[in-house]
Amino acid sequence: MSDRPIKILIAKPGLDGHDRGAKVLARGLRDEGFEVVYTGLRQTPEMIATAALQEDVDVVGLSILSGAHMTLLPKVTRLLRERGLDDVLVTAGGIIPDDDIPALQEAGVAAVFGPGTTIAEVAAYIRSHVRPPEA
Amino acid sequence: MSEVGIRAAELADAAVAGDRRALARLLTAVENRTAIAEAALRRLYPSTGRAHLVGITGAPGAGKSTLVAALIAEARLVGRAVAVVAVDPSSPITGGALLGDRVRMQAYASDDGVFIRSMASRGHAGGLAATSTSAATVLDAAGFDLVLLETVGTGQSEVEVAATADTTVVLEAPDMGDEVQAIKAGLLEVADIVVVNKGDRPGAQRTAAQLRAMLTVTASPRLATASPRVASAARDQAADKPRPKRPEVLITTATTGEGVPALLAALDRHRAAGRDGLAAAARLARAEAQVWAIVSERLRGRFHGAAAGPATESTLRAVAEHRLDPYTAADRLLESLTGGRSPA
Q1: Residue A1 domain-assigned?
Q2: Cβ(B96)–Cβ(B80) under 8 Å?
Q3: Helix (H, G, I), strand (E, B) or coil at B260
Q4: What domain range is A72 assigned to?
Q5: Is residue A21 part of a domain?
Q6: Pick from A30, A44, A54: which is nearest to B97 by CB?
Q7: ipTM score assigned to the predicted complex
C-alpha cells in the first residue's frame, strides 16, 4: 500500500531539560497524519540511532536547545550512516545559529528549522523530501 | 523466484541471521501488509512458535510501558533476548499517531538482546494493530525468547490480546474500582496473571486482596452435597463449558522493579503449565483468528476486484437504499463467488 503514513522519530539529544517544544512539534506532526515516535529527554546519539533503526523511521527530527548541536548532531548522523540508515532524512530544530547551518548540512543534517517555523512548513518539507516507500 | 520473492527471502534470512536493520524493514513491510511481508511470513512461519508471547494490557496510565521496561531488565539479567511490540492508537481523524512507549524503555540502546518496536493501531479496534500478531511472528523467527505485546491503553473489553498471546497479563492500578469491577465480564476474564502495579501506593494491598477474592471464586456447583446422579450430570455439563481462568494476582512497583522477578517467575510457570490442553486450545484459537482474518481480507479483495467490483458496488447500494436486506445481499455475493449454488 502506498498510502502508508510517514514515520518520524522526534528526539532530544543532550542534557537540556526542556521538551515542551519537541512535544508540541510531535503533537503537531501527529495532527498532520504522521506516525511520530517520541522518545523523550536526554537522549544519547546511540539511543537515537538505535531507536531510528528499530523503528525503521523515514525521518529523524532532532530538537536541541543546549548549544551542543555542533558536537551532538554530527555524531547522530555518523551513527545513522554507520548503521546503514543513510537514506533517513535528518532535520534539526531549536536554537541553532545561522552560522552553524552550513557545517551541519555538510554533516548530513538536511534542514534546520529555526524558531518561528510553522508545523505546516515542517510537514510540507518532510513530505517533499522523504525517501520513497518500499513496495 | 519473483523479484518480490527474492527480496522477501533476503530480508527474512537476514532478519533471522541477526541483522537488525533487515528485521526493522521487514516489520515495516508487515505493518504495511506488502507482498514482500506475505512472502516473508510464509517462509518464516514454520520456524516459529518458540518464543513466549506475553500480552501486557490495562488502562491508560496503569504503568504498562514502565512494567515492560522492568521486565526487559529482569529478563536480560537471566540472559534472555527480549522483543517488544508497543501499540499506541492512531487518530481516527488524521491517521497520525503519537507513539510514546519508548520513552520508558531507553536503557538498552547498545544491547543487541533487546529490540523495541512501536506500532500505530491504524484503525484496528481490539487494542492491537491488525498486524501485531504477524510482527510477533517475525520477532519469534528472529530468535527472541520473550516477545512482549503491549496494547494501547484499554477499557473493559479490548480482549483481543488474549487470542494472540500465550500468556496475558492485565494491569490494574490501586483503587481503580470496587469489587463489582472485578466481577464484571471482559478484560479481567482473559487475564492469566493480574498485576496490581504502583504497589507503593496506598490501597495496593487492598486492591490485590479484593481481586484475589473475586477472581478465584468458582462457578462450579457444589458436587459433594448433591446425589451421585445429579453430580455426574453437573460434571458432564461443566466439562462442556469454557472454564473461567483463575489468574494469579501479583503486586509490582515497576518504577523500582519490586515484584518484577516474581512476575517473570509467574510468566514462566504459566508457560510451563500451559503445555497441556488449554494452551493447545489457545494456539488453535490463535491460528483460527489468523486464518479467518486472511480469508476475510481475501474475500473482500475478490468482491472488490476488477471483475466483481461493479456487481458488489450495486449490491451494496441496494442495501444502502433499503431495496435489499443485508442477508440476501451477503447470500448473493457468496453465490456469485461459487459460480451459482451456495452451500446453503
Answers
A1: no
A2: no
A3: helix
A4: 7-129
A5: yes
A6: A30
A7: 0.93
Q: Which pTM does this prediction carry?
A: 0.88
- CATH superfamily for domain B49-219+226-273: P-loop containing nucleotide triphosphate hydrolases (3.40.50.300)
Contact (CB, 8 A) for B249 and B211 = yes
What pLDDT sits at residue B232? 63
Residue A12: closest C-alpha in chain B: B103
Domain count for chain A, please give it. 1
Rounded Cα gap, residues B59 and B176, in angstroms: 10
- Ordered strands of the B82-88 beta sheet: B114-120, B82-88, B146-150, B52-58, B167-172, B193-196, B248-251
Extract the C-alpha cell encoding B306: 476488477
Say if A119 falls within a structural domain.
yes
pLDDT in tens, B94-116: 999 999 999 888 888 889 999 99
B37-46 burial, b at 16+ Cβ within 10 Å, e below that, comes to bbbbbebbee
Beta-carbon separation of A27 and B99 below 8 A: no
Beta carbons within 10 angstroms of residue A16's beta carbon: 17
For an interface test with A, give the residue of B11, B19, B23, B32 to mutate (most A CBs within 10 A). B32
- Side chain identity, residue B172: E
With CA atoms as reference, report the closest residue to B243 among B216, B269, B268, B224. Answer: B216
Rounded to whole angstroms, the Cα distance separating B57 from B54 reads: 10
Shortest Cα–Cα distance, A114 to chain B (Å): 23
- Residue A39 near chain B (CB below 8 Å): yes
Residues of B in contact with A44 (CB under 8 A): 109
Q: Do domains B49-219+226-273 and B279-344 have the same CATH topology?
A: no
Q: Order of strands, edge to edge, in the sheet holding A111-113?
A: A111-113, A89-94, A59-64, A7-11, A35-38, B97-99
Residues A80-103 have pLDDT tens digits of: 999 999 999 999 998 899 999 999
Contact flag A134-B103 (C-beta cutoff 8 Å):
no
Spatial CA neighbour of B76 closest among B49, B124, B111: B111
Residue A65 binned pLDDT confidence (cut-offs 50, 70, 90): confident
CATH architecture of B279-344: Orthogonal Bundle (1.10)
Which chain B residues touch A1 with a CB distance below 8 Å?
Answer: 32-34
Which is nearest to A122 in space by CA: A52, A59, A64, A44? A59
Beta bridge partners of B58: B171
> Is A33 inside a domain boundary?
yes
